[in-house]
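To: structure desk
From: M.T.
Subject: fold request, one chain
Message: Could you run this one when you get a chance? Sequence is below, nothing fancy, just the single chain.
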Amino acid sequence: MSVTFTFGRYVEDPRFGTVLMCGADHRHECTSADPCEDNALYGTCDHADAATAACGCEKYDINVSNTNAAALLERLGYPCDAGDELCGQADPGEILGRAMTGNVGRDDQGTPVLVYRQPGHATFIDCGVPAGYFTDRMSAITDLAVEARNRGLLVVWA
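Reply: Done. Structure tokens follow.
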């Protein structure tokens, strides 16, 4: 399970009314010299993950595990309980300020990998996080927020 921080925008859908669309607008004009095949043929980017680098439509997406998303949201000032859905939206200016200050005074030394084994039971592996992980993710969220503001979009996570 994972959570992706990305662009969001409200659009009018003829069947459902106003809906929040998550992700880049795949109807953008690709500026890559070598666009993915779908973009070249149809002008959109409904493609396999392997082709996303060609058009850059996921350049600002930040995908993290549910556990790390909950920790990031807490650092951003959006605390969540264990049973909460890890989804939301924010104005890019709001999330920009929170991302720029979210690690101030916080420990970002990382956590080690832990392996829990019990005979006759499943092995549980906690992958931990490397030192500087939250600083890196906050920097990426800052970049996402700046680009969302430039494009007139929201920042969403789900």
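Reply (cont.): The helical segments are 37-42, 52-55, 66-75, 92-101, 133-151. Let me know if you need anything else for the meeting.
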